[in-house]
Amino acid sequence: MNNRGIKAGARILAIDDSYFSGRKGYCLAVGIIGRSSTVEGVLSFKVAIDGDDATKAIMKAVKKSRFRDQVKIIVINGIVLAGLNIVDAYALYKKLGMPVVAITRKKPHPERLAAVIRRCRGGEKKLHVLESSTSHMLTARQDGYYLQLIGIGKKGVSPRFGEMLGLLRLARIIGSGLSRGESRGRM
């Protein structure tokens, strides 16, 4: 794990999904690119509800972004988007070369998630992605949140945690506002 941290002024990409109803179709994901207290860009892309394309969709959005070379860390609201669309944080880290931090309020229970996935169609592929990601993750706590870290340690995240959380909240607000007409819920 890299504990050097993310340099002050380096750009952070925070991603969250939007509200969706039903178990078919696509869900909008929103990415906020920022540093310090400045938002510098917004990305949006679709991911299949309960699908298996979240990791590829994030990679594609990052690679197409004009901020690609400037983003130094990816922050996600948990390791699933759009229901049970598992994000392979380890693959993101290896292929994009940037640390990944999944932040949640509730303690992650990969074994419970795996039990749900086993009952789904296409569950074997999802289980493989979940195991790939979580087997490389370090779990930590900060300010009442749980962090799942790949490519960086807690000491490396701590100085910029407030910034990461603020950008993640903004991604949630924008996604909720776009999908519901008005933002609701909390990070």
List keywords for this structure.
187 residues; alpha+beta; archaeoglobus fulgidus dsm 4304 fold; globular
The overall pLDDT, averaged over residues, is: 91
Range of strand content? 25-35%
Judging by the overall fold, what is the CATH architecture?
A: 2-Layer Sandwich
What is the element string, with H for helices and E for strands? Answer: EEEHEEEHEHHEEHH
Continuous helix count: 6
Alpha-carbon distance between the two ends? 26 Å
Structural class: alpha+beta
Secondary-structure map:
Blueprint: E1 11-17, E2 26-35, E3 38-48, H1 54-64, E4 71-77, E5 80-81, E6 85-86, H2 89-96, E7 100-104, H3 110-118, H4 123-134, E8 138-142, E9 145-150, H5 154-157, H6 161-180
Parallel strand pairs: 1-4, 4-7
Antiparallel strand pairs: 1-2, 2-3, 5-6, 7-9, 8-9
Task: Describe this protein's structure.
There is one protein chain. The chain contains 6 helices and 9 strands; from the N terminus they run βββαβββαβααββαα. With 187 residues, it is α+β, with helices and mostly antiparallel strands. The chain has a single domain, classed as 2-Layer Sandwich (archaeoglobus fulgidus dsm 4304 fold). Helix 1 (54-64) packs parallel to helix 2 and helix 3 (110-118) runs antiparallel to helix 4. The chain is globular, with a radius of gyration of 15 Å. The chain starts with 10 loop residues before the first strand and ends in a 7-residue tail after the last helix. The model has no long low-confidence stretch (mean pLDDT 91).
